[in-house]
Design brief:
With 109 residues, this protein is mostly helical. It is built from 5 helices and no strands. The longest helix has 19 residues. The relative contact order is 0.18.
Length: 109
Amino acid sequence: MSQQNLIHFLTGPAAQADMLEFLKLRSKNAVIAVAADLGLPFTEQEFDSLIWDLELRLAAKRGEAFDPRFALWDTLWGRYYLEYLVLDLIPSLASAGLIESGATSGSRN
């Protein structure tokens, strides 16, 4: 359930341009608190383990090594981490069929 909350949060509220702009400067704990306030609770441990697992699965699906040269991480440079998650990781996961592709519809309002 909490993993679904995290994905829903990253594809919904956090993906709205105004919310992303607000959240990108906040600490992880503050972002987790906002998610909980929106009825999408998850813990820091759940966040860390799910994101790591999804990145690992994406690398495997792409046939890439999950190491410092993982191609998707190049998009992280010059961005806040939450922007990377919402604008790069989530769409890449959807394109690879690792999460529902419909979950990202309307995410760039």
